[in-house]
Amino acid sequence: MKNILLINGHPNPSSYNAALAEAYLQGAKLAGARVEELVIAHLQFNPNLQYGYQKRMDLEPDLLQAWEKIQAADHLVWLHPVWWGGLPALTKGFIDRLFLPGMAFKYRDNSVWWDKLLHGKSAHIITTLDQPGWFYYWFFGNPSVNQLKKATLEFCGVKVKKVSYIGPIRDAKPEKLEMWLRRVAKLGKSQK
After folding, report:
1. What's the structural domain count of the chain?
2. Prior bond to 168 cis, omega within 30?
3. Residue 120 is part of which domain span?
4. What is the pLDDT of residues 33-54, one digit of tens each?
């Protein structure tokens, strides 16, 4: 049985993303998965990587607990909105503060290569948009997905198995919102 960690990256805990997270959690629980939710907006931490990689900042207790959950999980489900083509600042700050050298990856001495310290984990990215997913992909080049999938998760050894686009959210009719909730619950049931 997989240990699944759903990481909700929307800064507003009462957003539609929260409803999507709940739908995924319920679907996964019905399938018998061990699933837990991590709501970044509930964590107390400084999202600014103040010194870059020159000096290590102490991790706040909430970040230490979040890292333990990430390490214990087999499968990570990242749920976030796309704002200005990217991740919300709080989600980006969470990644900046946690996915550090020596924790998520390790630079090799005298080499351009690195070791991927999260090898063996899988992930699914679910992103909400105010445009159709195909438009975001073809017109803008999918920047938030590229950043999270390629430049973060795969860089650290996590295999991204699926990307799901939910949108356009803005002005969506209630029946469309309900349809997306059912779709995400099915994703939870299939544990993707």
Report:
1. 1
2. yes
3. 3-190
4. 999 999 999 999 999 999 988 8
Confidence (pLDDT) at 2 = 84
What are the average pLDDT values for consecutive 10-residue runs of the chain, which has 192 residues?
A: 93 94 96 95 96 92 98 97 96 97 95 96 97 90 94 98 95 96 96 70
pLDDT at 26: 96
DSSP for the chain, please give it. --EEEEEE--S-TTSHHHHHHHHHHHHHHHTT-EEEEEEGGG-------TTTTSSPPPPPHHHHHHHHHHHH-SEEEEEEE-BTTB--HHHHHHHHHHS-BTTTEEEPTTSS-EEETTTT-EEEEEEE-SS-HHHIIIII--HHHIIIIIIIIITTT-EEEEEEEE---TT--HHHHHHHHHHHHHHHHHT-
CATH number of the domain that 25 lies in? 3.40.50.360
Rounded (10°) angle between helices 16-30 and 174-190: 40
